[in-house]
Design a protein that fits this description.
The chain has two domains: 146 residues, NAD(P)-binding Rossmann-like Domain (Rossmann fold); 110 residues, UDP-galactose 4-epimerase, domain 1 (Alpha-Beta Complex), CATH 3.90.25. It starts with 6 loop residues before the first strand and ends in a 10-residue tail after the last helix. Helix 2 links the parallel strand 2 and strand 3. It is an alpha/beta fold. Strands 3-2-1-4-5-6-10 form a seven-stranded parallel beta sheet, sandwiched between helices. Strands 7-9-11 form a three-stranded mixed beta sheet. A two-stranded parallel sheet has the order 8-12. Helix 4 runs parallel beside helix 5.
């Protein structure tokens, strides 16, 4: 059965994951319909310029989602969460929105739902904005809709966010210098999702943990030094009494016990998805401009969530 040419509705298409999914689907010949709050906005107009259909909608407006899902073959579901910098929604909002997307997709006759979760899903973590994912996953599995759940590792993009310290020759993140953590390029999340939609017989009813590389803090320093052409050192984020750093401390504990470090089978994933980028290749490819910006950035706060 030929599926390309059918329409997939993409939520969050003006953001990182949704944008990568929309681009990968378009490259694969799918029709893409992006649900956006403001079709006249700059990011929405950029989507329209490359052939993405944009429709006005809001996660809190069930009628707008029903209209957006009408006639669609698939839906890619990702929600903003309370752990993101500047977020105004609550954890309960995220769960409500994620459940509503799945429920409306089921009632609209959508053939395939792909939900983007987190590597920590499946057991309580004690970090509220992570535990929302397990609750949404449970609701998706309860419904009578063909679905696939992906659990992406930490984004490579987080490592070159302005404010990580790269402009001062240093990077701090969640793992110890000798401790491995898995990462994935956001671009590759989109490509994996496009592959999932293209082969439903292979991926429906599966939960996929996805990553492109496993790196210690020292590995990061070595790759960044090579790509930057100047020394970059690494240390773990320090613990302080502030509220934000208490969250960072809990995230570091989840790296220590393995739940946030990731445990995807990288060899099996690369056999299944040969395009997955290692960090060094990403730094000289899709991540090159981001690295350059980070090397020239002024000091701002890191939010590794």
């Amino acid at each position: 059965m030929t599926l390309t040419g059918k329409t997939v509705v993409v939520l969050g298409a003006t953001g990182q994951q949704g944008g990568a999914v929309a681009a990968a689907l378009r490259a694969g010949g799918w029709g893409v319909r992006a649900v956006v709050r403001d079709p006249s906005g700059k990011r929405a107009r950029s989507l329209s310029a490359v052939g993405v259909e944009t429709v006005r909608g809001d996660l809190g407006d069930a009628e707008s989602l029903r209209a957006a899902f009408s006639g669609a073959h698939g839906v890619f579901s990702v929600q903003p969460n309370a752990g993101q910098a500047g977020a105004t929604l609550t954890n309960e909002d995220e769960v409500r929105f994620g459940a509503a997307v799945a429920e409306i997709a089921e009632r609209s006759g959508v053939a395939h739902l792909v939900y983007s979760s987190a590597v920590t899903a499946g057991a309580p973590t004690g970090v509220a904005h992570l535990d929302t994912k397990s609750r949404i996953e449970a609701r998706v599995r309860d419904l009578d809709i063909a679905s696939t759940i992906i659990r992406p590792a930490a984004f490579m993009e987080l490592l070159v966010t302005p404010g990580t310290g790269l402009d001062r020759g240093h990077l701090s993140f969640l793992m110890r210098p000798d401790q491995a953590m898995q990462f994935i390029a956001v671009r590759d999340i989109g490509r994996v999702v496009a592959a999932v939609f293209g082969s439903p017989e292979r991926y429906i009813r599966r939960t996929l943990e996805i990553a492109g590389d496993s790196l210690t803090g020292d590995d990061l320093a070595g790759h960044l030094t090579q790509a930057a052409g100047r020394p970059i050192s690494y240390s773990r984020l320090p613990a302080t009494p502030s509220a934000q750093d208490q969250v960072i401390g809990r995230l570091e504990a989840l790296v220590d016990d393995g739940r946030l470090a990731g445990h995807a089978d990288l060899d099996a994933l690369r056999a299944e998805f040969p395009f997955l980028l290692r960090f060094d290749r990403w730094l000289t490819g899709p991540g090159a401009n981001l690295l350059d910006q980070a090397l020239r950035a002024s000091d701002t706060a890191i939010d590794p969530r």
